[in-house]
Amino acid sequence: MMKSGIYHQDVLRQSIRNSITGKPRKVLTTLKPDASRQEILTTLETNFGDIKTGQSVMEEFYNAKQEKYEDISTWAIRLETLIQKAINRNEIQEDNEDTMLTTRFWRHIHYTELRNATRVYFETVSTFEELKVKVRREEQEMAVCKGTELPKESNVLHIDEQMKILKDLTEKMNLMEKKLNEMSREKPSQNRN
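Predicted structure:
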């Protein structure tokens, strides 16, 4: 919208001001009414922007791994966000982006089974986007074949919880049966007296 040049600067400036709410809106009150778009954006960036250095963003990128419960799309988006921050801080060149994303993405997929099933794609596809689609497809197919999307450890925890509940219920039923037997023994002796 801003780069297209079809809107007047005043319209763009007012649109920016109108689209901002909450705490950032209060910050805008400190600016003069005729502040330029750049002044508005600079003030917002200063107060609310990401303040990490380029090196810390790169460190975060190189330490990134897919989380246990993170699906492939979420993992890819997280990596893309990190690399875009690094590009914005001139830590890496855009022409290296695809190679870096492809390598980090595939090598740090959490599930070894999925990584092994997609190795051929990693070695043959030419872009990160292609690899992402192929891995997502494989992830979906694996979930369908397994009949569940829950990780194995989650199922184990669920079974353990159910076994504990079953054990507690069994103990309570045994206790109730014991009390019932005692009550039934006491009742005939009371009727005789």
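Summary: Residues 24 and 123 are 46 Å apart (CA to CA).
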